[in-house]
Structures are given as C-alpha cells and as structure tokens.
Amino acid sequence: GLINARKTAASADRSERRSLAHNASKGGDFGPGGFRRERVSAAADEPGTATTFRVALTFLKSMVGPFLLYMPKAFSIGGYAYGSCMVALVAAISSYNMLLLLDCRDVSGQRTFGEIGKAAVGSWGQNAVDFSLFTSQFSYCTTYFIFVADNVSMVLETLFAVKVHSLTLMILQLFIYIPLSWIREMKTLSKAMIFANTCIVVGLVTVLGFAIERIAAEGFAKDVRPIDVNGIFLFTGSVVIVFEGIGLVLPIRDMMAQPRHFKPLLTVCMTGLTVMFCSLGAFGYLAYGSGIERFVIESVADDFPIPGSIAQMTYSAAVILTYPLMLFPAVNVMNRHLKRWGLWKMSKAATDHVKDNVMR
Fold first, then answer.
1. Would you give the DSSP letter of residue 37?
2. Do 13 and 6 contact (CB within 8 A), yes or no?
3. % of the chain residues with pLDDT over 70
4. What percent of the chain is modeled with pLDDT above 90?
5. pTM for this entry
6. Which of 109, 94, 106, 107 has the alpha carbon at shortest distance from 59?
7. Any idea where the Amino acid transporter transmembrane domain is (predicted)?
8. Quick count: other Cβ atoms within 10 Å of Cβ 336?
9. DSSP string, 173-242
10. 3-class SS of residue 27
11. CA distances from 165 to 12, 150, 154, 234, 359 (A)
C-alpha cells in the first residue's frame, strides 16, 4: 500500500509539472516558470489616456530636479571624467532596473511597488518597499523647500535689496504645496509639466550658455581635474540619487494610452537625460572650477545678476510644480497604511474627500 501511494503521488506530481509547463508555454494566467499570475480585473489593467508626448514630458520632469544644478559641484568633488563615467553607469543600472520593474508588473499583474513586493516575498516585502518609497519621495520633497527658499531669497536680495530669511520662505511655500497635494490623478499634472519643462529649459539654456561663454573667453578653470581620488567615494554616494523619479515609473506607465510604447520611451528619455546631466556637470565644472557654488545657477547669478535671477526663478517655479508629482507615491503609501491600521477610518462617502484632503 505504501509503494502504491508513493507511485500515485509521483504520478500526480509529474502530471502537475506537465500541466504547469503547458500553461506557461501558452501564457494566459501563468507566467515564466509556470507560476500563476495574479488575476486582475479588466478595469485595473485598463490603459490611461495620456499621449506619448505628455508621458514623455512627465517622465522627464520627474527625473529632473534640483540635483541637476548640483551636478557641476558634484563633478568638482569627483572630477569631470570620473563624474561622466559614473553618471552613465548609474543611468544604465537605473534603466535596466526600471525595465525589470515593468516586467515584474506585467508578470505579477500588480500595479504598485508595494503590491509587487508582496507578490515576490510576502507582506514584509510590501512593508519594506513602501517604507523605502515613502522615505525617498518625502526626502526629495524636503529638498525642494530648501532649494526654492535659497534661490528666491537670493533673487530678492540681488534685485530688490530685500533680505528674507529662508525659513520664512519655507513656511510660505506650504500655502502653495498643500493645495497642490490635493491633486489625486497624475494626468491632471500633465499640462503643468509642460510649463515646468519649459521653465527648466530656460534655466538650463541660461546656465549652459553662460558656462560655455566663460570657457570660450577664459578657457578651462585652472584647478579642474579629470578625477579626484580623494572625492570619488563622496561623489559616488551622491550620484546614485541623481535620477529622482524612479518611484514614479509605474504610475507614469499606467497613465499612458499606449503602455506598450513605454519601454522604448523610457530608454530614449534616459539616454537624453544622461547626456544632459553629463553636459551640465562637465561644462559647469570646467567653467567655474572648484570654487563653484553649491548650485551652478548661483554662480551664474553672481556674474550676471539679471539673467541669473530669471533662471533661478524659472527653475524654482519648475520645482514647485514638480512637488505634487514627487509627493504622489508617498501620499498614496501613507494613506493606504493609515487606513489599513485603522488610524484613518473613512465613514460616509461624502466625508471621504474631505478627510483625505486633511490627511494630505
């Protein structure tokens, strides 16, 4: 009887493996290796409505923040040759991982980072991913307060001889950021991203133009180095966060009307971003040397007050408009966990909207 039971179990196991392999080869509800896909409703997997152009603008804006203007200072720490190589390497690794993330979404049928983490390793994986996502996005948003306050304060002092403390400007920003945080759908921000990208282009053209003009007139700064051995570790630690919008890849993909085009679009955008980051970092460092300000736009404003101030204000406007986009994943994570823990219970549908706004 024991021998027959073992034979029966072995036969059933072989049949199950053949069935899984057959289903995996056919696709359907089974992913690679015969693992069952998570079923999702048709509504959950519906494509968005945003055009490829709008998605590209949103993706580019999500990746470009204050850190771009810090690149020349970062290059002064690690050297222009080492800096360019490391930015390209980080871009390649980030692009590869984002493509893997999109593959995980397609295989698992899950739409958020946390859900993919849960599908991979269970509830603790979801909690770990959500914590990392919340921390990173919230940290990026915190730097926006500092960047905008410092630049607006500098412009007011340069053009109008009015000195306003940075802390005051940080508090005033709350009256802008709080209403912006009430935006619930990323597609609502697409038009704002057009204006934000225009502001960034104005700022970058101004910075690059004056940096190249300075190089043409005076040559390279005398203290520039292709690599600074003493600063490579600090530079490497800084450059890993250069692409700020990785946490928005899945939401941006879901807003696209033709999601199948997102992977090629991501590759093209990341290539362009790499060229832009390396160019600004190298030209800014070669123009101003190790004495460059923390943000290169401040060095330009020192030499050319009016154009530099215009660039500072336009870039600050772009950062302000980016705030709700960067906060979007963090708010969703916090909202979901507060509800799950029973700390933020929704009652009637009429009050859900108000309570959610208060939490945001």
1. P
2. no
3. 81
4. 52
5. 0.79
6. 94
7. 49-340
8. 15
9. HHHHHHHHTT---GGGGHHHHHHHHHHHHHHHHHHHHHHHHHHHHH-S-TT--S--GGGHHHHHHHHTT-
10. coil
11. 74, 9, 10, 30, 28
Kindly give the residue spans of alpha helices, DSSP state H, lying in the chain.
2-26, 52-63, 66-78, 80-108, 113-121, 123-160, 166-180, 190-218, 232-239, 249-254, 262-288, 296-303, 305-340, 349-359
Task: Check residues 332 and 77 and name the one with the higher pLDDT.
Answer: 77
User: Which of 268, 272, 221, 209 minimizes the C-alpha distance to 75?
Assistant: 221
Phi/psi of residue 30, each to 5°? Answer: -120, 135
Residue 260, number of CB atoms within 10 A of its CB:
8
Two tokens, residue 313: 């204000």
For residue 276, give both structure tokens: 């832009």
The rounded distance, in Å, linking the Cα atoms of 90 and 145 is 26
Orientation angle between helical segments 349-359 and 305-340, nearest 10 degrees: 130
Cβ pair 319, 148 in contact under 8 A: yes
* Cα gap 301→102, rounded to integer Å: 41
For range 23-29, the mean pLDDT: 44
